[in-house]
Every structure is written in C-alpha cells, then in structure tokens.
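Subject: two folds for Thursday's group meeting

Dear M.,

Sorry for the delay on this. The cluster queue was jammed most of the week, so I only got both jobs back this morning. I'm pasting them in the order they finished. Each block is the input sequence followed by the predicted structure tokens. Could you check whether the formatting survives your parser before we put anything on slides? The first protein is the one we discussed after the seminar.
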Amino acid sequence: MEEFTHYRCKEAQLNVEKEEMSKECAKFICNIGVHNEYALPCECNPTGSVSAICDWMGGNCQCKANIVGKKCDECAPSTYGFGPSGCIRKTKFT
C-alpha cells in the first residue's frame, strides 16, 4: 500500500487521459478494483475465464460464453452446465 500511494498509482489509474503506466504502478493495475483502496488478486476461475489476466480497468476477468461474475465463476441467468466450454442456454419447450 505504501508503494501504491507513494507513486500515486490510484490517480494514474483513474486519470481520463491514459499515459504509459510507470513500472512501479503497472504491477498493481490489473489487480485494482475501482471501488477498493488497495490491490486485490484477480483470482480468475480457470474453468470459466479465458485467461488468468484480469482487465486492467476494474479487475474483471474475461469470461467464456454465458459465464458471468467478476471471477467468471457462475453461469449467466437462463444457462446451466458450468464447464470448460462455457454454460449452455436453456431452451424453452412449448
């Protein structure tokens, strides 16, 4: 936290005009949540996410098809079967 504050990493993250991030701040940015005052690990679900690297702006993981959640750890509404290919949409029978 001291290093994050010393190099003004929060301000660099929230700056509208993005400049090249300093190496001191870059290591924190993928772990920063906009609503947090400290760095958090991404902890992307390996089954539900495309990779272990989270979005540099907000810290969300990139999810597979029909998977949701900051960590990509649950099926989207009206879907089921959480797995390596994503979740499957429920079909309506009439």
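Second protein, same layout:
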Amino acid sequence: MKASLTDALRSFPLPPTDKWPQGVWHSLVLRHGSMSAGVFAPKGQDFQGPHTQDEVYFIVRGSGELLVEGQRAACHVGDAVFVPANTAHHFENFSDDFVTWVVFWGPEGGEK
C-alpha cells in the first residue's frame, strides 16, 4: 500500500460541511486493520475534536501549535506528536502551508 501526499493535497478542499464551513482539509488515504492514515492541512481554523483512537501527527510542512487539553506544544517540520484517544486537541497559529500526516490505530478508547 502507498499513499501520495501530493495526490491527497490535490483533492483539497473537499466540500464544506456544518463542522468544516471553509471546506474539508483532511482525508484518510490508507487503511489496514485498526490503522488508518491521512493528510490534514487545516485552513483558517481547526475544528477537530477528540478521536476515539490513539493518534500521531507527523508534521511535513509549515509550523503551528498543538493544544492538547490546554497544554501548548510548538510543531515544526520533522516533529511527531502523540495524542491519546478521547483527548481534546486542535492546532492553532498554524502557517498557511501547514500539512501533517495523521495516523490512527488501536482499539476504541486507546491502548492502556
């Protein structure tokens, strides 16, 4: 299996939704078992909420800050950031070119 960052970015933005009024800037591109991987390139504001699985972001373009339950972490190209399942989080102060891979895996509720 292979996914292309370039191909995923070419498909953006996907049509707007109630949750993502400026258009959807994320797409899952790989799936196997409990694992799914996608590309996330928010524009304007990040409206995401907690996810039911553990996840890791791999920053590939730009920079920003990830807020995880009120804790702020600067994120730059080459960084990997873990977010446990069911944890409130979102990106803020991200550059216009911000892009990250995101990988979800494991059981609902996260690994213990």
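Two things I noticed about the second structure. The chain has a mean pLDDT of 93. The CA atoms of residues 63 and 76 lie 5 Å apart.

Cheers,
T.
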